Amino acid sequence: MSRLTLLSLQVLVAVVCIALWQGLATVSIFGRILLPPFFFSNPVDVGGQIVNWFSTGIIWKHLLITLWESILAFVIGSLGGVAIGFWFARQPRVAAVFDPYVKMANALPRVVLAPIFTLWLGLGIWSKVALGVTLVFFIVFFNVYQGVREVSATLRDNGRMLGMNERQLMRHVYWPSALSWMFSSLHTSVGFAVVGAVVGEYLGSAAGLGYLIQQAEGVFDVAGVFAGMFVLSAFVILIDIGVTLVERRLLVWRPAAADGRG
Which fold has domain 41-250? Predict the structure, then answer.
């Protein structure tokens, strides 16, 4: 399937969903509107709210704050996950000792941590960053840990036969093996970094996309809530595109996947 065809189908799905939403929220069927506007709004009102936010410029301040919080959470969580994932994979005894504690920490509900981070770090950006880091770290950690452990024993032994030391093995064997796993986790963790920032803003802040959504919800502005969610979704897609570009640059050596056609 060509890229243009794929893009066309993706746009078609969005158009059909929006058209159904508009129809079900405005057209009466058997004397009843299936999606009451008070609870579901409609695409026209949501689109009008988004246009109003951007035309008045009110959205830019909130976008920049959420972007900054998300980037910090993404970078700190990813770097920590990569570093500790590599360390644990190369030090089985350390991994065995800390294994139950890692699992316990990963099992903690992040929403419960949000008020604790707010108490410790205040209502500024760092409480939101801390929440995002807890979401990103474990995703990257487990993928990098597994990626390094999945290195072919034959490939590793061949490298040692060629005289590679541990540093060379790390650069030419372990790191390339972990990159695919790492970028797979980064695509997922992008969304979680933004979720951490927005949830933190929703629970307590004076700016950000989460704050906008919380304010709209507080006055029963359903269109504003949906507008915030759509802006948030587009925001995540743009960041994910950036991760994809970096991935293509670093993984140029990886062969293209087969398209499955005979």
Answer: MetI-like fold (1.10.3720)
